[in-house]
Amino acid sequence: MPFVKGIDVSVYDPVVNWAKVRAQGYRFVYVRSSYGVDNKQTMMDSMFPSHWAGAKTAGMLRGAYHYLKAAQDGAKQAAEFLKIVKPEKGDLPPALDLEQYYNETATRKQFVENAEAFLKKVEQETGITPMVYSRAFFLREKVCQSNGKAPTWAANYPVWIAHWTYDYENTKPLEEAGWPAYTFWQYSGEKEYLDGITNQYGVPIPVDFDVFKGTLEDLQKLASAPIPEPIKYTIMPGDTYEGIATKFNVNLAELLNANPQLVMTGTVVTIPPSAGAGFASSGTSGGVAGSTDVVATTGANTYSVKPGDTLWIIAQKFGVTVKAVAEANHLSDPNSISVGQVLTIPK
Fold first, then answer.
1. What's the mean per-residue pLDDT of the chain?
2. Which of 88, 157, 204, 253 is 20 to 30 A off residue 195, Cα-Cα?
3. Domain 3-222 coded CATH 3.40.50.150
4. Burial class (CB in 10 A: 0-12, 13-18, 19+), 260
């Protein structure tokens, strides 16, 4: 059974180096966007805008999830969710998180009715069939009819199942009768770490790990994402596979699998495509066929700022620090860059 690796994040994962995550072979992410509808306004996860933009920049497929407060109006939660999340072609289906926390007093009836209202509203407004995230025991105990069976609408929505076995290759998750077989599986949480994800003080924190059941092409089809063409790169003096993988934010193993031949200066190699709808520019000069973003100069590169760029994003593209870029361009304020501005990138 093929699987594609991913993660899910929220405000509890405040610092994410997306380029580093992608380079370790993680192809998708689900990002918490919001929860509840308190005071007639859904509460947005404070890290959602940053995580949402960062994942796309790194070339990862992304999806948003909303945490249901089951005692509150599901349709209103959906309406507010859609004010925060604007699904684009190439994004994964939205998901609804059904859990016990903050829902301790909610009834089965409230879970069933408000979850259905949320799912139907999102589907009607977007034309996309959303998913349900939960654990099998919770679906059995709380998201069910009075007779204990799954809701009549359960079979209509894909499932993102949570079952922490900490291993997806040799085990299977517990699933619940009446619901579809899982599409995504959160197999690990609150235990294992991932290089590039820390708290605000730079200390590594446990991460939630997921897999998609299928191939990368299957995942791209689920997101209606165009399958990007591989990029050709000409080996330059001093290049290494490790360096090329870093330049293009790809996993080293993926790069080696795509190029099993011996290489030397002048050899044209294939850069595996990223998972996302678009390839995140590496910001490298030299042998990238058709690249127009970067101009080689003596001892440095120059880069023209694009819409959505920040100095941090540009620094990540080139594998340098924000401080180095700021100093090379005499920027007293790292936030003061504008679209079209040409920056010098130190080597």
1. 86
2. 88
3. no
4. exposed
Domain 231-346: CATH superfamily is: LysM domain (3.10.350.10)
**Sequence spans of domains, the chain:** 3-222, 231-346
Position 275 scores a pLDDT of: 52
- Taking residue 191's Cβ as centre, other Cβ atoms within 10 Å add up to 11
Two domains, one topology: 3-222 and 231-346: no
Higher pLDDT among residues 52 and 329, named by residue: 52
| Distant-in-sequence contacts of 134-138, Cβ < 8 A, 24+ apart | 134/97, 134/98, 134/99, 134/159, 134/161, 134/162, 135/99, 135/161, 135/162, 135/163, 135/174, 136/161, 136/163, 136/173, 136/174, 136/175, 136/176, 137/174, 137/176, 138/98, 138/99, 138/100
Spatial distance between the Cα atoms of 21 and 206, rounded to a whole number of angstroms? 14
pTM of the model: 0.73
Distance CA 345, CA 347 (A): 7
Which amino acid, 83?
K
